[in-house]
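Input:
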Amino acid sequence: MPPVLVDREPWLLFVVVALTAVCGGVAVRAEGFRDRGEGSVRAEAFRRAVGRIGWPVAPVLVGAAVYAAVQALLVDLHSTGGSGMVVTVAGLAPSGLLASLVLLTGLLLTALPPLAGTFTGGRHRWTLPTVAVASAELLIGLDPFQTPHSRPLADYLVGGVLGLLLALGAWAALLRPGGAGATRLVPWSLLLPGVVATLGDVLGLDLWVPAPPGTGTLLAVAALVTGVVALVGAGAVVARWPGAAADVAVLALVGVGAYGIAQGAFGRTLVVVGTFGSPRGPMPTVPAGFGHNAAVLGGIQGALLLALGLWLLPRTVLPDARRLWGHAADPALTERVRELTETRAEAVSSAAAELRRIERDLHDGAQGRLVAIGMNLRAAEDMIASSPHEATALVAEARAASAVALEELRCLVQGICPPMLADRGLGEAIRALALDLPLPCGTEIDLPGQRLAVPLESACYFAVAEVVTNAVRHADARSLRIRAALADGMLRIEVTDDGVGGADPAAGSGLAGVERRLAAFDGILAVSSPPGGPTIVVMEVPCP
Amino acid sequence: MPVGPVRLVVAEDLYLLREGLVRLLKARGFEIAAATDSAPDLLAALLEHRPELAIVDIRLPPTNTDDGLRAALAAREQIPGLPILLLSQYVEPVYAQELLADQAGGVGYLLKDRVFSDDQFVDAIRAVAAGGTVMDPQVVTKLLVRRSRSEPLLRLSERERQVLELMAEGRSNSAIANRLFVSEKAVSKHSTSIFTKLELAPSDDDNRRVLAVLAYLMAAPKPS
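Output:
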C-alpha cells in the first residue's frame, strides 16, 4: 500500500483555544466579581451574562471530551503494534486524553455559575489548584505512548518551568484563602495546560510528541510565552463581549464540522500524525488503508462537531441575529421590562397603602378632633349669654382638642415627609436623624450641595430610618455609624452598628421592605450581619 | 423686662394665622411695625424698622423651606443681638442650634401651638425681647432623649432633671419655683448641684445659664 501523507489541521486547534479562552475569561471575570462582594448591580448583571454563556460552553466542552475519547478509541483500533507512529487529533493526543478530561472538568467547574461558587469558595478552595496541577502533571509527565529516553531536553525544561508556575499558583491560592489575587490565579493556572496542549501543537511543539528536527529550547519557551499572551488577549475580549465570543465559537464549530465532513468525503482527514522514536526521524507517513480509515474517522468527527454546532446555533447565534435585525426583543430589555413592571406594581400598591394609612390617621385623628372643636364652639356660642362659666370651659376644651389635633398632624407629617428632609435635603436629614437617636451615632456625609430628586431622597431617608430603627430596637447596639456618599452616579449609604448581629432580610424584618422600596429606584440592599455582630447594611441607588 | 408697647415685625405666610397673630398681639398691647408674608419682605422690614423683636415662621416663601430662619439669621448678622422668636409647626433641634450659634441670646423657638396659651406666649415675647432665651419644651425633650444614655445626666435626681428641663426652656429661678411648688432657694440649690454634676461653670446670669445648659445638651453625646 502506498503511503499517504496526512496533513495537519490547525483550525480545530484554534477552536479549542477559543473555547478555553471563553471559559478562562468568564471564570476570571466571575472570580473578580465574586471578590468584590455580592452587592454590586454590575455583578448581578454579569452573573446573568455568565448564566447565558455558561450553558452553551458546557456542551461544547463535553463534546470535545467525547470527541477525544472517540479519537483515542479508533486510533487504538487501527494502530497495530510496530507501525512506529501515533495519531493525534486537534491537540487532544490520545496520551493526553486523561489530562484533557481533567482539564475540561476543571474548566467546567470554574466557568459554570451554579458550580463555580461551590468549588472556589470555602473549604473546596483546594479543588481547583489540585485539578490544575494534576492536569499539568498528566500533560507533561505521564505519557504511556512515549519512551522516556526519546524526549528532548526542551520538553523537560518547558515542562519543569510550567509545572513550577502551576505549583506556585496553586500554593498561593491555598496559602491565602482570603486573597483576591490568589483566587484569580486559580482559573489562570487552569488555563496553562490548555495553552501548552493547543498552541504547542499548532507550533509543532507538543510536549507529548517530540519536537520536529531543529527545534530548540528557546523556541519552545517563546511559543509558550506567545500562547500565554494570546490567551490573555483572547480572555479580555471574551470577558468584554461574552455573548459575541460564544457566537463566534459556535460558528467556528459549524464551519470546522462542515469542513471536516468535506475533507472526509475527499479522502482527507483532520487527523494529525506524529512520530515517536527519534525526534529527527523522517516525516510521518501512514499506510493507505489506515489513511482511508482515518478519512472515515475525520468524517465522523466533522459530523459530530457540525451536529454540536447546529444544536447550539438556534440557542446563541440566531437569537442574536434576530435581535440585530430587530425581529426579536433584546432579552436584557425583556428582563428590564419584567423588573420594572414588578417594581412599579410594588411602588403603586405601597403608595396606595400609604395613602390609606394617611386617610385613616386623618379620619381618626385630626378630622375627628376638628368636628369636636366645632361642636364645642357651637355649644359655647349658645351658652355664652346664659351660662358664661360653662361656655368658657367648653372653649378651653376646644382649645385643648386643637392642640392635640396639631400634635397628631405633626406626627403624621413627620411620617410622610420629615420637615428636615423637605427643608435641607437628605444629608442634613440623616444628620438630624442621627442626632435624635438615644445612642451615639456618627455620620460621614459626602453629598453634593444641590438637592437630589425628591422621591429618591425620600426613599433613601426612610430606608436609613428603618435600618437605624432596627439597629436601635433589635441589635442592642452601643453605637452606630452612618456613611453616605455620592460617587460615579451611585448613592451609597452604609449603616454600621456594633450590636449582636444576626439580622436577616429574608426573616421578615423591615429590611425586606427597605429592599423593595429601593428596588423601585434600581437600588439594592446588602446585609452583612454575622452572629455577634457587627451588622453592616449597605444601600446602593443609581443617582444620575 | 421692658414694659409698655414693644415694637414687633411679624412674618407668617398663612393669611389667617398672620391676621390672628397681629390681632392677638395688638390686643396684648404690642405695636406691630410690619406684618410680612415672605422671607425677602421680612429681611427688608427688619432692616428698615429695626424692631425690638421679630416673630418669624421658619417656613416662608419663596422656597417654602427654612427661608424664615435664614432671613432672620441674615438680619441678625447686620443687626447684632436683634431678638428673634421663631415659630414653627414642628421642632427641630438643628434649627435651635443654628439660632443659638452666636451665643448672643435674644432668641426663642416655639411651636405655633404655644400661641394658644397667650400668657405663656406673651411671657416668651417679653423674655426674648429682653435678650433672654426661650426654648419650646419639645426641643428640650428631644435634646434630653438624645442624651438619655449619657453618664452625667443619669447622675441627676428626678427633681434635678425637672429643674434642668425648665432651665433649658429659659425659665428664671422664680418661674421654676412657681412651677414646681418649691422655694426659690431650693431651685437655686438644685441648679448648683446640676452645674456641678454636669461639670459646667456656674453662672448667676439667667441667660448665660440657659445658653450653657443648651450648649451642653446639644453637644454630641459620647458613649456611656
